[in-house]
Amino acid sequence: MNPISPELILRLKSAKRCVVLSGSGISAESGIPTFRDALTGLWTHFRAEDLATAEAFQHDPELVWRWYQWRRELIGRVNPNPGHTAIVDLEYLLPDVIVITQNVDGLHQRAGSRRVIEFHGNIHRNICTAEQRVIDIDTTGTDSPPACPDCGAALRPDVVWFGEPIPPLALQAAIAAVQVCDLLIAIGTSAQVQPAADLAHAAKRAGATIVELNPNPTPMTGIADFVLSGPAGIILPQLIEQLRSLQATQVAV
Ligand code: BV8
Questions:
Q1: What is the DSSP letter of 134?
Q2: Is the pLDDT of residue 125 over 90?
Q3: Within 6 Å (CB) of ligand 1, which residues are found?
Q4: Is 45 a catalytic residue?
């Protein structure tokens, strides 16, 4: 793990508008397999990209529904980790922080983050496939998509599948945020999924400083001004601690 540079802490302290762009890596230390690793156990013979599509749901709704139910049950048994909590701390230490998450697990909100753009939806919600609106019924223990209580059509998870557009309000809010931010911190994303990955490039084009936090290099590493190689749950609390120390010394002077 490379050390956190004093320049980064100074840059963090001076940030006016910070965007945090998170991927499944930030939930890894909560015990949720990253998206590329999501297919563990009984799901090993499937690729996530093959299940997270409208075609897969059309072809075998029970199979896709059971995969989401398995993920919901897993998420229900875990908690936000120190990485999520450190981002909440950052929200109190900087004037303007907004989280754009690719994750559907809701852990940022459970940790206490107050401004979260759910770029790919939220696994805990279901929508009616006919009416395209959220239907709030308890689906715990169901093995196949329940029927909409209003019209009888099948319910589906309120997530963005591959080949589906990003919800317009989330897309507009995310684009607006990256176009005015002066600092973007990308955490735990392989930067392979579009249009999410392009948000960092849009921020770069708008003149923002780019920080990438990931144990591994990604297609985004090339545009990063600072690269933090290691796990979010370890590095982010260290970042917060050093930012707090800097802010305290500058107040004391
Ligand atoms: C769109 C919700 C257009 C569902 C997700 C062909 C046909 C159609 C579209 C396409 C196509 N070819 C390409 C595309 C575009 C496609 C795409 O990008 N495909 C990829 C595979 C190439 N995108 C789309 O389809 C998007 N829509 O283009 O629509 C359109 C426009 C108008 C009208 C109609 C259509 C929609 C994409 C959204 C898909 N849904 N999730 C669900 O969750 O079930 S994406 C899903 O995968 C996640 O949400 C996430 O976004 C993505 C995985 O990415 P990561 O989060 O980065 O996770 P990954 O596992 O890859 O990486 C984890 C990283 O963490 C690693 O780098 C690892 O090193 C790091 N890490 C591990 N541990 C830690 C850590 N980091 C820090 N700390 C640790 N401890």
A1: B
A2: yes
A3: 23-26, 28-29, 34-36, 49, 52, 102, 104, 120, 159-165, 188-190, 192-194, 196, 213-216, 218, 231-233
A4: no
